[in-house]
Amino acid sequence: MDENKQEKKVLGRDDFLNMPEPEIREHFCKALNATVYLKEIDALDYENYTRSLLEFKTDKNGNTSFEYRPEGMRLKFLVRCLCDANGNRLFKEDEYELLGHTLSGRNSRAVQELYEKSVEINGGNEEDLEKNLNTDQEGGSNSD
């Protein structure tokens, strides 16, 4: 076998079902002067997050289109990432406004700091996340 060729591993169902648990990180939030836990979100959470930023409409012919609605984008991501030491969410998906009022009322810089750290934990930076969301919304119609 050629040294330059690497053996390819093919993942099966059991490999997917035995993936490592999402990472949980402790983060000292300077804006809040307190420690919080943030976690990686799974693929389903990311899909639900993306969907929460889109407004779907179906016309009389059954064609579906969507419009990008970034309102609450950072807070909607944060409610999926803020957790306790065991990885249990602190907020439900629909509580992003509650979180926003709480954080913004005390220190709006906390939203940005926690959002940036959450995006980093989830393998990217803010520009990557926004680019992915913009890519997901291109071709905004679906007739499936």
Percent helix: 40-55%
> What is the architecture at the second tier of CATH?
2-Layer Sandwich
SS field, number of helical segments: 6
Q: How many strands appear in the DSSP assignment?
A: 6
Tally of discrete structural domains: 1
Query: How much strand content do the residues show?
Result: 15-25%
How would you explain this protein's 3D organization?
- The chain is α+β, with helices and mostly antiparallel strands.
- The protein has one domain (22-138): rbstp2171 (2-Layer Sandwich), CATH 3.30.2220.
- Helix content is 42%, strand content 18%.
- It contains 6 helices and 6 strands, in the order H-E-E-H-E-E-H-E-H-H-H-E.
- The protein has helices at 13-17, 43-52, 73-81, 96-107, 109-121, 126-137, and strands spanning 24-29, 34-39, 54-58, 64-68, 82-83, 141-142.
- Strands 1-2-5 form a 3-stranded antiparallel sheet. It has a 3-stranded antiparallel sheet with strand order 3-4-6.
- The longest helix has 13 residues, at 109-121.
Question: How would you summarize the topology of this molecule?
Answer:
Blueprint: H1 13-17, E1 24-29, E2 34-39, H2 43-52, E3 54-58, E4 64-68, H3 73-81, E5 82-83, H4 96-107, H5 109-121, H6 126-137, E6 141-142
Defining traits:
rbstp2171; three-stranded antiparallel β-sheet; 6 helices; 18% strand; globular
